[in-house]
């Protein structure tokens, strides 16, 4: 009956206090447990220290043997004869002789390492085994060394070839004594230049040798030693393993080096340490009865103390519960009466009180968040109206600024506009966020960065979003006009540089400085005008209104320069396929128009389209009936130019179009050249090369003297040479002289200055400078090398 009454109230504070009071009243019980624990811990610590010392002694003894195996393995691996045999391409007879010398040298290793019972090297190229004093084929070696009946030949090959490098494992050995097994250390030799396996070094020591070493160590107290390799394979155990191997492996994953695990004979305690010379693990297993046999008396006394403590705790806990629960019960009753609509799903009285307080605080926080959100929207709306010149507000802007805690520190204002040019690419870098969230994140970043930069210059900055752009209203501190302009430029440059960390490419425009809040709308209009001018200046630039402002004196510069004679010159250059000259002429025309700071955007577009028309005229004047089909294959030229956002992009598209048109014209001209002219040019170039080879020692040899020799202008000969060979005439002369100088340095004993004179250089310093430019080193260094 009592159980059915109390069970529904199991979550009540009564049960919590019951546990709390019990914890306080359980001090005698805890003291008994503590005494027992400390006594057991002291006993276990002593045994642990003894067993740890014993395990370290075993490790030292076994590691000494393993270190000898590794040392012998290293000496064999780096043996010079073995390296030559495995990695040098020599004749077959020499291979056999070198192998014979190597196995003889292995006998010396056998004498030096008396405790190593067997070692050999597999020679994969000859399918042989190299042992001390002899070389055998694989089958014979297997029968001689490993064929005890426990391992097949194929299994032995797989073990040798697929074993992890520098690994210890178990291999059978014919002469290994009663156990007929040995611990082997296997190392694969590096692969040859073709990526093929060359061989494997195997060093073995009989398990019986290790077991005798362990038997010589006294003090095991019935313990068991287990040695595991890198793959947790049991290499050695002084007695059969009684603990499940999986439990041993599970223990090796723990950070501690001691734990209790069940075995076939009851619980056992496991110790393990790592080898100091390899990746082996040493495990010591001790029966748990050794510890508890000495602590039995302490355990019985502890049980009696616990029983007495439990009885006293029960009596005292019941008394304090009845006395302290009454105030909590009355408080819960009071809250429940005033909040009858709340259902008490939680039976804990304190949780109920906490829930009611939390509910009240959450309502307060939600009201505060709503007020803050409305505050931000109202502030943005106020700035929007101010920037757009709407002054019909019922509340003055001065009062609005005070309401939104925006301090007006002076009567001077400017506006900075920020346009994000790569919002699409930023969206791809923020997966998992919708468009609205990404937009709010960018606005948040720009707002915080810009307002902090403005504050860094002791001004006040207020950022809002208007028409997909971020606008910063700057309220200046009391500074002079020149310093304000410098501060605006610094804020824009630092914002553009810093926001590249967030992969934002910004175009920024800056207005002039205006007085009073009424001038803010004019400042915003100036910033918009400057932002539109990015079509001429290009994106990702900082544009100030002062740069594009048109004064009366500047209107004289607003002309349009593209005379007919210049257009005809460009047409002629295009018809000859001269891309360099045609491109230079077009760049000159665009420079004379676009380098003016006050160029009209409409005139700029007209100039681009007129230049496109010039190229179409040039194609039509080629006049062979193929122009129209060729133009018809490229119908999107004009569309791609019109789609450009800036004049710079239009110029780039125009240059691509110019290259295609000039290439087409050049191909036409080349097709019209006769074979006779081509052969004539080739003969002329051959004569020029022969003349250079005959006259290269002449210090006066240059383009003009070569031209005079062939009754031609030097510049014309140089151009023909470059067109036919792709190399400049002066470069060819210089390279030929350097080539001859290198030959002379190789077989003559003359000085560098004399060789310089012989190849046509009067000044040895000039010769050294030219030689180093083409060869990368000085003539003196070259002479030392040769």
Automatic annotation (TrEMBL):
Gene3D superfamilies: Homeodomain-like. SUPFAM superfamilies: Homeodomain-like. It comes from the Bacteria. Keywords: DNA-binding, Membrane, Transcription, Transcription regulation, Transmembrane, Transmembrane helix. This is Helix-turn-helix domain-containing protein. Residues 686-785 form the HTH araC/xylS-type domain. It comes from Paenibacillus plantarum. The chain crosses the membrane at residues 12-36, 301-321. PROSITE patterns: HTH_ARAC_FAMILY_1 (PS00041), HTH_ARAC_FAMILY_2 (PS01124). The keyword Cell cycle does not apply.
